[in-house]
Amino acid sequence: MNQILANVEIELQKEKEHRFKYFFIFSLSILFLLSIFFGYIMYNSNLNQKTSRFLQYNYETMQLYASSNLYTNLEKNNSYTQKFIIGKIEIPTLKISYPIFSILDDETLKISPCIFHGKMPPEGGNLCIAGHNYNNNQFFSLIYQLKNGDDIVIYDNNNRKYTYSVFANYEVKTDDLSPISNISFKHELTLVTCNNFNNHRIIIKAKY
After folding, report:
1. Which residue in 25, 127, 131, 182 could disulfide with 139, CB within 3.0 to 4.6 Å?
2. Domain range for residue 101?
3. Residue range 34-51: mean pLDDT, rounded
């Protein structure tokens, strides 16, 4: 009888060891798949950043050689530049500089900030620019840190500089369009990005 009980205990122990082994292998598989998933996200994020830097380089090159044949060649060889780039945005406090696209859609928004309402200065009104929040890696992920008085600089394609001063920093729900429709100054700038933690919109208001 004792031998039978001993054999049963041995079998139970082996079964426990097998279960633990299977659970361990399963856990490792899940961690491996998650690592691949996050690696893929980071790869795409870095790829978008490289694309934006490439566009920024092209933009600056075009400004330098605007009167030469190189400007025409760059436009012909770069579909993004040819169709959409109308200036750039710089935020010195955050040490960021990006080209600005003249339209907003899923494809262009992945590459650089886009205008979705208003016109470039010196036209009056509310110039609204959206940029993805890539969690402190790219675009407008850090604009929540901006304070009243911080500068936001807009350059047009003639390299004219327009410096806006931040006067408001707040959040709204996704269906709140008041930051677009409400304007307090003749020349106003509105930056919009997502808060990835609560799905609200971060709004930065500036004027010049």
Report:
1. 131
2. 84-207
3. 59
